[in-house]
Amino acid sequence: MDLFIEFIGARWYLFAIVIVLMFLLMNHERRRGGPSISPAQLTMLVNQHEGVVVDLRETADFRQGHIIDSISLPSVKLAERIAELEPHRDKPVVLVCKYGHTAVDAAKTLRQNGFTRVFKLGGGITEWQNQQLPLVRT
Fold it and tell me: Helices 12-33 and 2-10: crossing angle, nearest 10°?
């Protein structure tokens, strides 16, 4: 630990550059995928602002359990089926995948197609389940 502190003291400028680069990288990643919201925030968006939940998982996973009233739109078919979301263009759209990673690219696609209120569920459906929130099975 003493060597680390000595290194920082002697080369503080390198340490500062690393911190700034880390901050910029984290900020870029956060902005690229749009804001993440919690399950509680998702519930609020749906109940108070007529938000729409779009489940990006494969149909088989969707049928095993999904958030009530969510739209099944697998991420691999998003570009060709984006017209299905047209009626919801002015509403908040919350993207849900398994862990929250797939939603990043889907959010970018929606923004490129004029959707301005796009969010992703942080932690995906896994976080929803971890908080023991209800799922609908079809």
Answer: 90
| pLDDT tens per residue, range 47-79 | 999 999 999 999 999 999 999 999 999 999 999
In angstroms, the CA 18 to CA 124 distance is: 30
Cα 81 to Cα 26: distance, rounded to the nearest angstrom: 31
Q: How many domains does the chain fold into?
A: 2
CA 2 from centroid of its chain's CA atoms? 40
Check residue 70 and report its DSSP letter: P
Same domain, 57 and 26: no
> CB within 8 A of 26, min separation 6: which ones?
none
Domain shared by 63 and 24, yes or no: no
Tokens of 75: 């991420």
Nearest to 71 by CA among 85, 92, 91, 86: 85
Between helices 102-112 and 12-33, what is the axis angle to 10°?
60
- pTM, rounded to two decimals: 0.78
Q: Which residues are catalytic?
A: 97
Integer Cα distance of 122 and 99 in angstroms: 8
